[in-house]
Amino acid sequence: MYRFQRELKPKERTDILENNPIVTLVIGGCRSGKSRYALNAANAVPGPRRLFLATSVPRDREMTQRVQAHQAERGCDWETVEEPVNIHEKLLAHADTADVILVDCLTLWISNMMGADMDDPAIENRLKQTAQVFSRLQCPVFLVSNEVGYGIVPENALARRFRDLAGHVNQFMADTADRVVLTVAGQALQIKPGGNRISP
Q1: What is the pLDDT of residues 133-154, one digit of tens each?
Q2: Where is pLDDT greater, at 34 or 64?
Q3: Which of 47, 88, 161, 162 is the one with CA 20 to 30 A from 108?
């Protein structure tokens, strides 16, 4: 099986940005409160230019209703940009103009890339392109992602590939991010920066 090559960020960058993080990964299970936490944290960032980068592609009525509910929760202060696959391009386009960027969510982004018939090396390349954009951002960015690895092993190959990709993407983004927040039952726990990291 193809394994992503993760390049750990130098420790010095984390130390410098510990009190002023640029990239925050918010991760948790379904209905754990991750999107609400990310939205509240992003709303606390000063400045009127708020960009919501949506990876969702509504394909049925239920999904459309979910999107509309999230839009109502954000309110009119947010500009919404929809991009299912090339989020690095949208991030780059707004790198110098936004006061805060919220990307929701990386899990659907993975699903969209799989739906576009991208293989694992192509997805890894897209990850690296996105991480490179982070260094050019002048504003905080919040990334929302699902933790899907706590359940049973999926019964089919496609679902197993999705689960594995989600795990790899989350690890990659957690290594890249300045801060990682885990949400459980509506409670938020900062896990990076945190205690001493144990080397594998």
Answers
A1: 988 888 999 999 999 988 888 9
A2: 34
A3: 47
Q: What CATH number does residue 90 fall under? A: 3.40.50.300
Has residue 43 been placed in a domain? yes
pTM reported for the whole predicted model: 0.85
Beta strands in the chain (DSSP E): 23-28, 50-54, 78-82, 100-104, 141-146, 179-184, 187-192
70 catalytic? Reply is: yes
Domain total for the chain?
Answer: 1
Domain interval for residue 42? 11-192
Q: Which tens digit of pLDDT belongs to each residue from 44-61? A: 999 999 999 999 876 777
Q: How far is CA 92 from CA 30, 132, 136, 150, in A?
A: 29, 10, 8, 33
Nearest 10 degrees: Cα torsion 111, 117, 122, 125: -40
End-to-end CA distance of the chain: 19
Q: Is residue 5 part of a domain?
A: no
The tokens describing 185, both together, are 């039952």
Q: Which one is catalytic: 70, 88, 94, 168?
A: 70
AA identity, residue 133: V
Of 159, 139, 143, whose CA–CA distance to 151 is shortest? 159
